[in-house]
Every structure is written in C-alpha cells, then in structure tokens.
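DM from R.C. (forwarded with permission)

"hey, sorry to bug you on a friday — could you get me a structure for this? deadline for the figure draft is monday and I only need the backbone to look sensible"
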Amino acid sequence: MAIQTILRMGNPLLLQLSEPVKYFNTAALEHLINDLWDTMRANNGAGLAAPQIGVLQQVVVFGMQYNSRYPDANPVP
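My reply, with the result:
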C-alpha cells in the first residue's frame, strides 16, 4: 500500500499505550498490515509494530527470507 515514516526513539507517541484490535477482516486492518509490510521491507527490517508508524494499535509483522542486517539468521516465514 504505502511506505510510512518510522518514528524514532524519543518520540512521545511511542510511550503511549496501544489498543488491541477489536475488529478483524476489515479494510482498515488490511491496509494497516500492508503498510507495515511495505514499510518494513523498504527499510530492510525484520519486524515492525504499528506504533512505530504512528498507529496506536497492537499489531506487529515480522518475517524475512534474507536480511543483509542479519546475514546469519535463519529465514522466518
């Protein structure tokens, strides 16, 4: 969907509590997950949480086939 800006350490938003997901199988949740994947891959990451892109929901994505930052790590589906 879209690559988002990753908030950096010290951003006050990262200190706030995130809300659990209440409704699954929604377009909004699918959009958020796609944004997380796109942002994580664009930044050569291995995982990313919604608060790191400014969304205070308890959503996280992780996984990689190969990541140059972690060359000895096994793939995570």
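R.C.: lifesaver. The chain has one domain: 1-77.
me: no worries. The mean pLDDT is 92.
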